[in-house]
Amino acid sequence: MQYNLNDTIVSIITALQESAISVIRLSGSESIGIANKLFSKDITDQASHTVSYGYIIDPISKKTIDEVLLTVYRAPKTYTREDVVEISCHGGVLVTKKVLSLCLAAGARMAVNGEFTQRAFLNGRIDMSQADSVMDLIQSENEFARELAISGVQGNIHKLITPFLDRLLEIIATIEVNIDYPEYDDVVMLTQDSLLPKAQEFLKDLGVILKESQSGRILKEGVKTVILGKPNVGKSSILNVILDEDKAIVTDIAGTTRDLVEGWIKLDNVALHLIDTAGLRETEDKIEQIGIQKSRLALKQAEFVILVFDASKTLDDEDLELLEITKDKDRIIVYNKMDLSNERKDGVNVSALTNDVSALTDAINEHFAIHKEALKRPTLSNERHIAAVSASYLAMESAVTALELGVELDLVTLDLSESYTELASIIMPRQDIDILDEIFSRFCLGK
């Protein structure tokens, strides 16, 4: 879709539903003029970041449409770095649409999806990593995801990536000057042997970012967790206690759970996407067989397993089989029904019957404690950002291999430039990445 970025745009920026208030935002050079056509007071000279009380009046019928608060934000200190006006009206759907319609009739254009943030980017208020983080913030489903997103909005991804770009650009620039201007005495001469340690160190540091990004992804998306065990060991009861709701049906009849039952829980150090499964066993019940097939698929896709045993009974062959099929999974072993038995030393002891699963939540928090450390420093969690660093890593890995083989430096710069471009794409569009401009902005060669 083609549209003019010089237009003044308008949109409802709150949910279009009955509520206390609705907010309509105008952005662009004509924002104040358009609002002035509709408002009961002259706001031509209203100071920036101030609010006026008044009415929206239809300029044709002269009817009063709504009682509003009108806020003026003057460029450049606004979200889009353009003049912005926000009209806070009563939250009825009809009145909100009417005010929007008047803004459109007065000369504004309907904003397309994401256009306010696009203008913020195009006008230099935010970079691409911050724009990504705005969407991550909107879509965040748990507190960890929100914290990671707001860190990105505040520019911390930019701060993480920029030093890497500076390091890499310094290397590329030095090579280029060595090749093109060998007489330039102020630049150190690089060889394969002198460059290799720098490239290896860079590769190592990129690897640290990628490793820590796994913590970011876990915190953002939560951990897909399967509660597994034989029928009637208390899996559903444990799920209900952890979630503090009757999510799953609980009876004394084995095989009650026929389908997957899911829920989300945020603990101190991690968010879990919990999946209660049908007990794995041989059965003639066709419906239960379908549930068991789903359980096996869920187990295959799970990132974490809570393996539940009946503490009041000795482990049998079925229990041992569950231990075997989960041996390569990240897991915690849980003994339920401790109200009927003594403590077991090789797992976590709980009693869902008495609502005592604190030992399990404590164990899970301890298990994932290392990931929460990621919140203390800039950490990648956005898929696009992680993919770009991964591509940069592969290009640098290729450069390291080439240096080890003694490949000429002018050929190595191809991999180094690719590594730079992939990293830079996190904070700017690829078409705006110009390595040569960056290089020669650093050296005054008099050429």
Shape estimate: flat
Number of strands: 12
Largest beta sheet, briefly? 6 strands, mixed
Strand order of the largest sheet: 3-4-5-2-1-6
Helix content: 40-55%
Helical segment count: 15
Mean pLDDT: 87
| Rg estimate, integer Å | 30 Å
Order of secondary-structure elements = EEHEEEHEHHHHHEHEEHEHEEHHHHH
Spans where pLDDT lies below 50 across 5 or more residues: 247-259
Portion of residues in beta strands equals 15-25%
End-to-end separation in angstroms reads 44 Å
Structural class: alpha/beta
What this model shows, in words?
Helix 5 crosses helix 7, helix 6 runs antiparallel to helix 14 and helix 7 runs antiparallel to helix 13. With 447 residues, the protein is an alpha/beta fold. The chain has 15 helices and twelve strands. About 3% of the residues have low confidence.
